[in-house]
C-alpha cells in the first residue's frame, strides 16, 4: 500500500456532492481524486433549483457566475390551484431583491459540467467503484479499496448517495432511508410557447411543477402519493394523464411532451432519522449519503454543495491533520441539515393532504398568505436562503 499522504483526499461518488467536494478541496490546495462507479457522468436527472444559499456556495467554488447565467427570470412564480387560480405568488425579481440572488433553475447536467470543467483533468475516475475498508483514526490513515488496489488517505469524503454503503459501514445501527410515500416524475421538454406562469400546482395528494429554463425548454415535474416501487401498468404517460389530465394548462400538455426515455420516475426516500455525526475516523459523509431529504424544498443538492464548501473551509494545504477538522464539520452541518430534512418532510405533509376538508383548509391558508406582503412570505425562507459560506480557516 502506498504511504499515507495526510493531504491526499479521496472522494467516493461523482454526483453533485462529490464533484463539489473535490472542487472545494482542490481550491484549498489539497490533492484529490474522485472514484465514480458509473461508466460515465451521463446527464441523468432533469432540472435542479439552485437557491441563493447554493449560488453563494458555488461562487466560492468559482462556478456561480456560469450557473447564474443559465437562470431564466420569471414575473409570476408561486403556487396555483389545479383550476389555475393563484394561491400564493411572487416573482424571481422579488426573490433576487430580497436575497441578492434568484432561485436559478438549471439542467442538472449543466451543474455537473460546470463542476467537472473546473477540476484538473484526470481528477475523476469513472467505472471505478470504491469501498472504505478502514475509516482510519488519528494515528492511522483511512483505506479505500478500488479496482486499482487499496489506497490510503488522510481524508475520505463519502458522497455515495442515499444508498451509501459507507454510511452503513460507519453507522451500522442506523435504520437507513425511509420511504416518504411519494413518487415523482421529471423531464425537460420543448414546448411551442413559453408558459406564462411558473411554479407549482397543488391538488389533493399530488403536485405538478413548471420551471421555464433560459434556453426555451421547460423543466416539468410531478409528485403523487403512491406505494413504494409501484409502476403504472399502462405506462407512465397514461399515469400522468390520469393524475393531471384535467389540471390547468399547460400541465397536461407539458407532461405529454416528455420523451419516454427522458421521463424519469423516482420514488422519494429520505434519511428520516439523523445520523449521530457526519463523520467517523477520517471519513466525512456528504450530501444524500449524510442527509437525504424529500425534494419539496429543493434543497438536497443545495445542502450537498454547502457541505462541500464548509468542509473545505476547515482545511488547507497547511492543515496538520485533516481528521482534526471533522468534528467541527459534523457540529456545523448536522443541526442545519437535520432542520432542513424535517422542514422538507413537513412541506411534503402539506402536499400529502388529500381529504376535501384538509385540502380546503390548505387552500384557505395559502390564499390568505397571498394577501401578505411579498417580504413577509420571503422572510419564511430566510433561515435557508440567507446562509453564507464561512471564511476559510487560515493555516488550519
Ligand atoms: P448522488 O447524486 O446520488 O450521487 C452519488 C454518486 O455516488 C452516484 O453517481 C453513484 O453512482 C456514486 N456511487 C455510489 N456508490 C459508489 C461506490 N461504491 N463507488 C463509487 N461511486 C459510487 N435538490 C436541489 O437542490 N434542488 C432541486 O430542485 C432538487 N430537486 C429534486 C427532485 C427530485 C424528484 C429528487 C428525487 C431530488 C431532487 N433534489 C433536488 C435532490 C438532489 O437531486 C440530491 O440531493 C442530490 O443530487 C444528491 O447529490 P449527491 O452527490 O449527494 O448524491
CATH C-level class of the domain at 9-72 and 108-177 and 271-351 is Alpha Beta
The general outline is: globular
Look at the structure and give the mean pLDDT.
90
The CATH homologous superfamily of the domain at 9-72 and 108-177 and 271-351: FAD/NAD(P)-binding domain
Assembly classification: single chain
The side-by-side strand order for the widest beta sheet comes to 5-4-13-14-15-12-16
Q: Please give the share of residues in helix.
A: 25-40%
β-strand amount: 15-25%
By CATH, the architecture of the domain at 9-72 and 108-177 and 271-351 is named 3-Layer(bba) Sandwich
Structural summary, described in words:
The protein has 14 helices and 18 strands. It is of the alpha/beta class and 396 residues long. The chain has a domain of 215 residues: FAD/NAD(P)-binding domain. The strands form 4 sheets. It has a 7-stranded mixed β-sheet. Strand 1, helix 1 and strand 2 form a beta-alpha-beta unit. The chain is globular and about 65 Å long. Bound molecules: flavin-adenine dinucleotide. Flavin-adenine dinucleotide (FAD) binds next to helix 1, strand 3, strand 12, strand 16 and helix 9. Flavin-adenine dinucleotide binds next to helix 1, strand 3, strand 12, strand 16 and helix 9.
Amino acid at each position: 500500500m502506498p504511504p499515507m499522504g495526510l493531504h491526499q483526499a479521496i472522494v467516493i461518488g461523482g454526483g453533485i456532492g462529490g464533484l463539489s467536494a473535490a472542487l472545494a478541496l482542490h481550491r484549498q490546495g489539497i490533492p484529490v481524486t474522485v472514484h465514480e462507479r458509473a461508466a460515465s457522468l451521463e446527464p441523468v436527472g432533469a432540472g435542479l433549483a439552485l437557491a441563493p444559499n447554493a449560488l453563494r456556495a458555488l461562487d466560492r467554488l468559482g462556478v456561480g457566475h456560469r450557473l447564474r447565467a443559465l437562470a431564466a427570470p420569471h414575473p409570476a412564480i408561486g403556487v396555483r390551484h389545479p383550476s389555475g387560480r393563484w394561491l400564493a405568488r411572487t416573482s424571481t425579481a422579488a426573490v433576487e431583491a430580497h436575497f441578492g440572488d434568484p432561485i436559478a433553475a438549471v439542467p442538472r447536467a449543466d451543474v455537473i459540467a460546470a463542476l467537472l470543467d473546473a477540476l484538473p483533468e484526470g481528477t475523476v475516475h469513472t467505472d471505478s467503484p470504491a469501498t472504505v475498508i478502514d475509516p482510519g483514526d488519528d494515528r492511522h490513515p483511512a483505506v479505500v479499496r478500488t479496482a486499482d488496489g487499496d489506497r490510503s488517505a488522510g481524508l475520505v469524503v463519502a458522497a455515495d448517495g442515499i444508498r451509501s454503503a459507507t454510511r452503513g459501514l460507519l453507522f451500522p445501527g442506523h435504520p437507513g432511508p425511509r420511504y416518504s410515500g411519494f413518487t415523482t416524475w421529471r423531464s425537460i421538454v420543448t414546448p411551442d410557447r413559453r408558459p406564462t406562469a411558473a411554479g407549482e400546482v397543488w391538488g389533493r395528494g399530488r403536485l405538478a411543477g413548471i420551471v421555464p429554463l433560459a434556453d426555451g425548454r421547460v423543466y416539468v415535474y410531478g409528485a403523487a402519493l403512491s406505494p413504494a416501487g409501484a409502476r403504472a401498468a399502462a405506462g407512465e404517460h397514461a399515469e400522468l394523464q390520469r393524475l393531471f389530465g384535467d389540471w390547468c394548462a399547460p400541465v397536461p400538455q407539458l407532461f405529454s411532451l416528455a420523451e419516454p426515455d427522458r421521463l424519469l420516475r423516482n420514488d422519494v426516500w429520505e434519511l428520516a432519522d439523523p445520523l449521530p455525526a457526519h463523520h467517523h475516523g477520517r471519513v466525512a459523509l456528504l450530501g444524500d449519503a449524510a442527509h437525504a431529504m424529500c425534494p419539496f424544498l429543493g434543497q438536497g443538492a443545495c445542502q450537498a454543495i454547502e457541505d462541500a464548501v464548509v468542509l473545505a473551509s476547515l482545511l488547507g494545504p497547511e492543515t496538520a491533520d485533516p481528521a482534526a477538522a471533522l468534528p467541527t464539520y459534523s457540529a456545523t452541518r448536522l443541526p442545519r441539515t437535520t432542520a432542513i430534512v424535517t422542514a422538507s418532510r413537513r412541506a411534503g405533509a402539506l402536499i400529502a393532504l388529500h381529504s376535501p376538508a384538509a385540502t380546503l383548509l390548505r387552500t384557505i391558508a395559502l390564499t390568505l398568505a397571498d394577501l401578505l406582503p411579498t417580504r413577509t412570505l420571503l422572510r419564511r425562507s430566510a433561515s435557508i436562503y440567507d446562509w453564507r459560506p464561512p471564511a476559510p480557516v487560515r493555516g488550519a
